[in-house]
Amino acid sequence: MTDTAGSAHASTLAGTGAASASAAATLESATAALNAWLEVDLGRLDQNLAALRAALDPGVDVIAVVKANAYGAGVAGIAPALERAGVDRFATVWVPEAVALRRLGVRKPILVLGHAFPAEAVAAITHDITLTVHSLDLGRALSEAATARGRVANVHIHIDSGLHRDGVSLGEGVALAEALRQLPGIRVEGLSTHMANADEPDDSFSTTQGDVFAEAAKRLPWVPYRHTANSATALRRQELRYEGVRIGLAMHGIVPPNTPGPGVQPILSLKARVARVVDVAVGEGVSYGLTWRATRQSRVALVPVGYADGWPRHLSNAGEVLIGGRRCPMVGRVCMDQFLADVTDVPGVREGDEIVLLGEQGDERISADQVAEHAGTISWDILASLQARLPRIFHRGGAVELVV
Ligand SMILES: *Cc1c(COP(=O)(O)O)cnc(C)c1O
Description:
Blueprint: H1 27-31, E1 36-41, H2 42-55, E2 61-65, H3 67-71, H4 75-85, E3 89-92, H5 95-103, E4 110-112, H6 121-126, E5 129-132, H7 136-148, E6 153-158, H8 170-181, E7 186-192, H9 205-219, E8 225-227, H10 231-236, E9 244-247, E10 268-273, E11 276-280, E12 285-286, E13 292-293, E14 298-303, E15 320-323, E16 326-331, E17 339-342, E18 354-361, E19 364-366, H11 368-375, H12 379-384, E20 392-396, E21 399-403
Parallel strand pairs: 1-20, 2-3, 2-9, 3-4, 4-5, 5-6, 6-7, 7-8
Antiparallel strand pairs: 1-10, 10-18, 11-14, 12-13, 14-17, 15-16, 15-18, 16-17, 18-19, 20-21
Helix pairs in contact: 2-4, 8-9
Bound molecules: pyridoxal-5'-phosphate (PLP).
C-alpha cells in the first residue's frame, strides 16, 4: 500500500528488499500533492552498473559504496536494487550504516571502510559485517566476539599510502596483518588503500601510492582481496583495479572530474512545485536582507526547498532552476525551507507548476556538477547533503516502486 501523497513519507516496502508496482502509482500521481521530492530512476541505476561493468575488466568486483544514505539518493531504495542488479559487495563508512543495510535485507558482504571501536565488534559479528581493522585491540575484540559465537570474522587492513587520512602505515600494516593472522576467529581477507589525487588533472601521485600498496601486497601475499580504487581511479587506472573497485559517484551516473565517462546517466532528480507567484516592482527586494532587487517589473516564483533540505545557501543569487522548460535564476537568499526564482521571462507560471532543481525538463538539464560549481563545491557534496525531509520516489520508467 503506497500513501504517496502523505507528507510523512510512506514507505511501501521498507525492509523487505522486495519491489512491487503498487496500484496505479505513477510519478504524476505520486507527486501531485508534494511540495518537493527526489526521483530516483532505478532503471538507470541498472544501466549504470552494466556500463561500469563493461568499462572494467571481467572478474573485477564492483563494491557499491552506499555511505551517507547512498549519497543522498536513499539507501532503502538503492541498496536492495543494487543487490538485485548483482553488485558483488557493499561498503559503508560506519558500522551503524552497515547494520542498517542488513536490516534492509542486504545479504552480500558488507565492508566498513571507516573507523570502528572495539565496542562495535559484537554488532559486526552478529550482522556479519567486515571491518577495516587499524589496531590489535579491535582485532582482539573481534576475535573474542567471533569465537564466542562460533564464527569467523573477515577483516581488511587499510594502508595509508600517502593520503594521510585513515589506515596504518606500510610497516604497521604488515605487522598488524601478521599479528591478526594469529588470532582465533580472524581471517585477514583484504588489503586496501585510497588515492589522494584520484580525480585531479594530474593523478601521477596514484602511481606513487600504488607502489606503496604493491609493496604491502607483496609482503602479504596470503591476503586474497585487494582494493584501491574509487570511481575515478577505477576508470583511469586499470593497473589499480585489483580484485575489486569501490564505486560510489559513477553508479549515480556522475563522472568524476578528469575521468573518462563509461556512458552513465544521472539517476537522481530534485523537483518541487511552485508555491506562490508574486510580482515585484522595480526597486523592490526579495528574501532575507533584500539582497536581490528588481531592475525591471518582475515576477518571482516561490520554490519550497531550502538549506534544511540540503540545497546550499551558497546558491543565493547564484543558482538556476528549470521552470516551464527554461533556466530561471535563483534570486535572493536561500532560506531554511524555500527560495525564489525569477520567472519574469516564463509566461503563465502558476502555483503547482513543476520546478526542476536537479535533472531534466524539456530540452534543459541541470547537473549536479553545475549546481556544485554555482555553490563552490563538488557534486559528491550536493548529493550527500540532500536531507531525509525530501520524499524519495524510486521508479522504473515512471512506474513507482517505492516511496521512502
Ligand atoms: C567514498 C569512498 C569511495 C567512493 O568514492 P567515489 O568517488 O564516490 O566513487 C571509495 N573509497 C573510499 C575509501 C571512500 O571513502
